[in-house]
Design goal:
Elements: H1 14-24, E1 31-32, H2 49-59, H3 75-86, H4 91-94, E2 98-104, H5 105-120, E3 129-133, H6 138-145, E4 150-154, E5 156-157, E6 162-163, H7 165-174, E7 180-184, H8 197-209, E8 213-218, H9 228-231, H10 233-240, E9 245-250, E10 262-268, H11 275-293, H12 300-309, H13 312-343, H14 350-354, E11 359-361, H15 366-376, E12 378-379, E13 385-387, H16 396-407
Parallel strand pairs: 1-12, 3-4, 3-7, 7-8, 8-9
Antiparallel strand pairs: 2-10, 5-6, 9-10, 11-13
The structure holds pyridoxal-5'-phosphate.
Residues 36, 105-107, 136, 184, 189, 217, 219, 250, 252, 263 line the site of pyridoxal-5'-phosphate (PLP).
Length: 408
């Protein structure tokens, strides 16, 4: 028999557990700052108007059916995804140095990259993967599943509530040659702290000197600054410097297609005479891995994203929708900081506006987080992270006062 009695009870996923606790709470004042999903000013999920439009167009298309996609996914989706992250005129695309597969959103792209590394990356060497401390918790689980060893590099300074740049650089300088460095393309989760462009240049320099291998996780392009190109700056800089690298791309946040699982994985080869051949060979192995994992990716979300990415008018409308989301979040950052400052809440609050993207690492302790939950029905993760999109003009006063009370 299976002897299922030896299977131990697993702990609940902390984030999804938090969501369940929020749902159970009957207080009319409750505030959900847990999950990283955009909410409008009425705390409701927002269907991007451009996505609604694409949905209507696709719904009326008599030529569509429910057949399988190719193993690598929808071709017009993967090529548009390359252009989006690397830039339409990227030499890497022109020189056919990019192998791309549609994946099960960003999680699937990180997983496919992890699996590919485990199978093919520098066999019989130290293949430690370095994550930022802290990082998106799923990075640990995904890389554990493929049995790659991992370590961390310092990232968040509790003192400044900004980047621990020195700590990060020193750890990179001391990492074994060939180590894999997982980097967040922009809008770092959970801290909201990104390196400046000068800091990225220094990171790239050290990684080149030490022969470290970059894996960019890009889950928030366009969502951080509202500008798709600005948010892709770090990735494009590394490509310009000639790095060979992996990229995981998610369309969950920037299209609001959370449940549709649209994402893309890219392997970018360094410039070399045989780079296009290398890319083809890599692509062929990725197809084998993809076939055994998911056979082929889900079609619907990719169709929506592809329609928008490939149509200039819809694309422009999408950019407008992105500015709506990122703009509302920035407004909430400014409002929260000024309310806490007005209340004279102990501590400094400039980090709320210095950090960018979906999240803010407030610096609230676990004890304060629990107090907020018990006294004020405010739900956030224990590490003090808040999803900025959970704040709106109706609850921000209430939240600021609750924080003030919990901190004193
Ligand atoms: N990577 C990071 C850093 C994230 O924050 C997320 C989502 O929260 C993802 C990847 C993947 O998300 P999804 O699988 O929903 O695209």
């Amino acid at each position: 028999s299976f002897q299922a009695d030896v299977v131990p009870q697993a702990p609940e996923d902390p984030l999804f557990g938090l969501m369940a606790a929020y749902r159970k709470d009957t207080s009319p004042n409750k505030v959900d700052l847990g999950i990283g999903a955009y909410r409008d000013n009425n705390a409701k999920p927002w269907i991007l108007p451009v996505v609604q439009k694409a949905d209507d167009i696709i719904g009326k298309d008599p030529n569509l059916n429910h057949e399988y996609l190719p193993i690598a996914g929808l071709p017009e989706f993967t090529t548009a995804s390359q252009k989006l992250i690397l830039g339409a005129d990227s030499p890497a695309i022109k020189e056919k140095r990019v192998a791309s597969l549609q994946t099960v959103s960003g999680t699937g792209a990180v997983h496919l990259g992890a699996l590919f590394l485990q199978r093919f990356y520098r066999p019989n060497t130290d293949r430690t993967v370095y994550f930022s401390a802290p990082t998106w918790p799923n990075h640990n689980q995904i890389f554990s599943n493929v049995h790659l060893p991992y370590a961390t590099y310092p990232y968040f300074s509790t003192k400044t509530r900004g980047l621990d740049f020195e700590g990060m650089i020193n750890t990179l300088k001391n990492a074994a040659e060939g180590s894999i460095i997982l980097l967040h393309g922009c809008a770092h989760n959970p801290t909201g702290v990104d390196p400046t462009q000068d800091q990225w240049k220094e990171i790239a320099k050290v990684m080149q000197e030490k022969k470290l291998f970059p894996f960019f996780d890009c889950a928030y392009q366009g969502f951080a600054s509202g500008d798709l190109n600005k948010d892709a700056w770090a990735v494009r800089y590394f490509v310009e410097q000639g790095f060979e690298m992996l990229i995981a791309q998610s369309y969950a946040k920037n299209f609001g297609l959370y449940g549709e699982r649209a994402g893309c994985f890219h392997f970018v080869t360094s410039p070399a005479p045989d780079a296009a051949n290398t890319s083809t060979r890599v692509g062929s192995q990725l197809l084998i891995l993809q076939r055994s994992e998911i056979s082929n990716p889900p079609a619907y979300g990719a169709r929506i994203a592809s329609l928008i990415l490939n149509d200039p008018a819809l694309f422009a409308e999408w950019e407008e929708n992105l500015r709506t989301m990122s703009g509302r979040i920035i407004t909430m950052r400014n409002a929260l900081r000024s309310k806490l400052e007005e209340l004279g809440t102990p501590g400094t609050w400039n980090h709320i506006t210095d950090q960018i993207g979906m999240f803010s690492f407030t610096g609230l302790t676990e004890k304060q987080v629990m107090k907020l939950r018990e006294d004020s029905h405010v739900y956030m993760t224990k590490n003090g992270r808040i999803s900025m999109a959970g704040l709106n003009t109706h609850n921000i006063d209430y939240f600021a006062k609750a924080v003030d009370k919990a901190v004193r």
